[in-house]
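Allow me, if you will, to draw on your knowledge of protein folds for a short while. The matter concerns a single protein, recorded as an amino acid sequence and a row of backbone structure tokens. Could you please explain, in whatever detail you think fit, how the structure tokens follow from the sequence? I remain grateful for any guidance, and I place the record below:

…
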Amino acid sequence: MSQLGRFIMVLVVLFSLTGCWNRVELNELWVTAATGVDMMDDGQWMVSYQIIVPSALASGTGGGSGASSQPASHVFSVKSKTYNQALSYSNLETSRRIYVAHNRVVYIGKRAAEKGMDRLIDFYLRNTEAREMVSMVVTDGLASDLLKKLSPPEKLQGAAMAALIDKENDTLSLFPKVRVYDFVLSMKSDSKSIGVPVAELTGEREYKNEKEAENLDVFKKTSPPLKLALTKLGVFQNGKLKGFLDKEESLGVSYLSQKVKNSEISFPCSEQLGRKMYSSLRVNSAVVKLTPRKTSFHYTMQVGVKINGTLNETTCTKDISKTETIHDMEEQISKEVTRTINEGWAKLQELGVDATGFADLIHRQFPREWKTVKKDWDQEFKKMELDIQVDARIQRPGLLQKHIGSEI
């Protein structure tokens, strides 16, 4: 090929390149840290967006003091008939396009949760920007109200809540981390049920304090009057909210769902002057084995729990160096775990919600019988019984052989 021919070919290739024709500059986007979904009285959806203010984060003024201070995020809400319509209508209220790919958590208002999550799931699975790995949190009121509350000392409340969920899931195992992806799997499972953490404002719920939680002045206080915290577990069936479990009940469900990583167990050790004294075990590992059994009338789930942990606090006046003392403590720990599991199980049966996923185990173990049981599983679940066996082991009792006040 001649030199002229090569030159012409290069020109043709260069002119055929499209370049970044569909590029979007960062200063044309509002990056979302969290979103909220509420069902309103008129039947419309209200979608709220917590958008990041990069200048506040870069300058370090977000949450600071002084006249130039500005919040690290802004919240605005859009009412519409569908989620995508809300995303489109947001262009009427802001000069930048809402970008939801970096969303960390989605808050779901109580009324929206009771209405059903099928529309939210459809949005996250169908939309090319929305990511199904975002964490889900239920609120006891309006999600839009919770989004407006600041969470000192963190500047971005949405990112702080996502980090709080991860930390709690790894250290306490009271409330499982649930992503949109996990929720989808639950809706397609045999049990069609799942538990989702509930976030609330704790403290003195007064009008003055609620308004103060939306103001930057809250960062100037050493102890804010209101704090955003995970408080209970919302259980869903067929994508709809059916009820709530408290912390103890939720931990029992975590055991039955095989989701306990690390946890803390307080158990009675001895009584002094008629007052029950408690010790504390840090759970290092919890292995739960579930084995379904069928009798002539109903199903029984054999629950085998093996716990290993470290004794990190005790008021027991007995000599911990003695084997019998350790065995007594391990027996008390086993009783406490059994009680916790039974509490969670009783609440689930009361609600008639199989948030443990036992239906999937029954299906795999008894595939033929499942064809008959499937249509009446809600009633069969309420008749089901547990056979709990807990084996607790104290691996490390600590350096002290006796409680420091045992000689007094």
About this structure: The chain has 14 helices and 13 strands. Residues 107 and 240 are 15 Å apart (CA to CA).
